[in-house]
Design a protein that fits this description.
Shape: globular
Order of helices and strands: HEEHHEEEEHEHEHHHEEEEEHHEEE
Largest sheet: 9 strands, mixed
Structural class: alpha+beta
Strand content: 25-35%
Length: about 290
Amino acid sequence: MTDVTVNQNERLRRPAGIRSIRLGDTKVSYVPDGDVRLRPLDLLQDTSEEVWAAHPEYLDATGHLVGSIGSLLVEHGDRALLIDAGFGPQTLEMPEGPVGVIHGGALPHSLAELGRSPEDIEAVAFTHLHVDHLGWACHPAPGGDRPVFTRAEYLISESEWERRDILEEQGMTEQVAALAPRVRTIADGQEIFPGVRVRITPGHTVGHAEYVITGGGRRLIAFGDAVHSPLQIDHPAWSAAFDHDRARTADHRRRLVAELAEPDTIGFGVHFADVVFGRVQQDADGPAWRPVDA
């Protein structure tokens, strides 16, 4: 086993820290909020004990799949956009199901490490309306009752916001109420920030959105929860238990994997371990995720 392989295996077992890459005049940075430990067989129900025995590099010492929880900061000149808002200052442990434990809380500190404050964020664009992406948009700033993002609009795909009744049925009435005054709905193909366009990709949720960021002759696809683990790049037919429409998500993921293999294309997997930025390379065994660090 080469040193490069050992290093990548270590990265697959730890949540991501701050990482940044440049796309010409645009800087994109992963902003950590926390992490999640997932039960692999419950998350990817088409897998087996044999699959995970063959891929121990993805699992921590307790047998959990390690995932990151955070946001993507997009900076262009003095302007700043945030994609998703982490999980917020809370911890949740689940005795059964895909999630073992999930926690957040680090996002404001992580923004400060990147030289930004929440007041700098002009908009928060959401991939979808799950609690591990809404986070700080629904929690007051530490030590008070004011919103964290004091001047940001909340950008949500029109089809996702139209079905906010799904959230209310799941007991998320307070979150919907916190979002509502700031929401501006967005449509497929719309440019929401210099070099950033939304595309609607239903499957994980009814109005799931991805964001395509271009600059410097490269593009980055922030694909939200279309993919939860780099292992799904190798096996795009494996959908996650959280997917609203598993067949539709699998179809989209096959197309996405092919797109990520195109030249000058980078992916951003918000729930990947410490390999959030990467590209797809074809090798003898098929497509595989390769980290990109610059």
